[in-house]
Design a protein that fits this description.
- It is a single chain.
- The protein has 324 residues and is α+β, with helices and mostly antiparallel strands.
- The protein contains ten helices and eleven strands.
- A seven-stranded mixed sheet has the order 2-3-4-10-5-6-7. Strands 1-11 form a two-stranded antiparallel ribbon. Strands 8-9 form a two-stranded antiparallel ribbon.
- Strand 3, helix 4 and strand 4 form a beta-alpha-beta unit.
- Helix 1 packs parallel to helix 3.
Length: 324
């Protein structure tokens, strides 16, 4: 059935307040859920709502805490989520971090001890909305094995980057450093489908097309050693620079109970006009060369925001039950 993005936000808000979230915290997360659905990012949208609700009820995520925002150095901002939602902790610190970036040319924002942020690009596009270049990193529960290995050490550990443009993003990407997001494996299993070779290995470290075997084994990095290096970079910044947990110390992100996630997100905010005024011209030089080639595009250039979403009936029925 078709559902408006605004109704998705309101139902998500209602579901989380019913399950114990404060109104400000629930609104912040509901906006992220609706935005993910508007952009076709189903894994980070309503697909996650049941997990938010069950973990609110179990106390795995603290739904009423307020983050503590501090500025330990002129170009550094820290938002301690206190085991609450990453969306709310980021929202509370964005203005301070953007101000620090304009004052210093560059600033970092560390979000510490947070619930999974789900869609990392949701945050970097907000940085770009401030007229700044945003680069983000986070980690997750361990699902990716090192090249040649068979035991998971790091999470899918995404990297996102958003570049401001005239009235819209000039460039935007958000991708996991694993070959694929874990959600695509679980969705393939639920649908009774196979997965392509190169996504995962089984418990013996052998490549597999069986999603069930993949879930018992581990995902692999995109591009082999190259993706592994980027995944490690995200791990060190997200955990080491924020004082949050390593991927190794996080239980499954969607398990109903257990220790809070305690994850970190690390953002770099840059004023594109800090060193010279020609940033837009340099970017346009590359964008024009790409546009001249039929079928080629700058990442994020063709994103289409929807106002009506085709939501599977069973999923929408679940949303209605969760929201009372």
């Amino acid at each position: 059935m078709k559902v408006s993005v605004s109704e998705i936000e309101e139902r998500s808000f209602a579901a989380m307040t019913v399950h114990g979230a404060g109104k400000r915290q629930a609104r912040s997360v509901a906006k992220a859920v609706a935005r993910a659905e508007a952009l076709g990012n189903v894994i980070c949208g309503l697909y996650y709502l049941e997990s938010y609700c069950t973990q609110l009820a179990s106390g795995r995520v603290k739904g009423t805490v307020d983050p503590v925002v501090s500025r330990p150095r002129p170009g550094s901002v820290l938002s301690d989520a206190k085991f609450g939602f990453a969306q709310y902790a980021f929202e509370a610190a964005l203005h301070t971090a953007a101000k620090a970036a304009r004052e210093n040319g560059v600033a970092t924002l560390a979000v510490a001890h947070a619930h999974t942020c789900t869609s990392l690009g949701y945050f970097t596009e907000q940085i770009a909305g401030e007229g700044l270049i945003g680069i983000g990193f986070t980690n997750a529960s361990p699902v990716v094995a090192p090249p040649g290995g068979n035991k998971a050490v790091i999470g899918t550990n995404p990297i996102a980057m958003s570049v401001p443009g005239e009235g819209k993003l000039a460039m935007h990407f958000d991708f996991s450093t694993s070959a694929v997001a874990l959600g695509k494996i679980t969705m393939a299993k639920a649908a009774g489908e196979t997965i392509p070779l190169g996504w995962a290995v089984d418990a013996d470290g052998q490549p597999t097309t069986d999603p069930e075997a993949a879930l018992k084994g581990a995902l692999v990095s995109a591009g082999g050693y190259k993706g592994w290096g980027f995944g490690l970079m995200a791990e060190l910044l997200a955990a080491g620079m924020t004082g949050s947990v390593n991927s190794l110390d996080v239980g499954g992100l969607k398990l109903p109970d257990g220790k809070p996630h305690g994850l970190g997100q690390f953002y770099i905010l840059m004023d594109p006009g800090t060193h010279h005024a020609g940033f837009a011209d340099r970017f346009a030089r590359v964008a024009d060369a790409v546009a001249a080639q039929e079928g080629a595009r700058i990442p994020g250039a063709d994103r289409t925001e929807m106002t009506q979403i085709n939501v599977p009936d069973a999923l929408w029925e679940l949303v209605l039950r969760l929201s009372g």
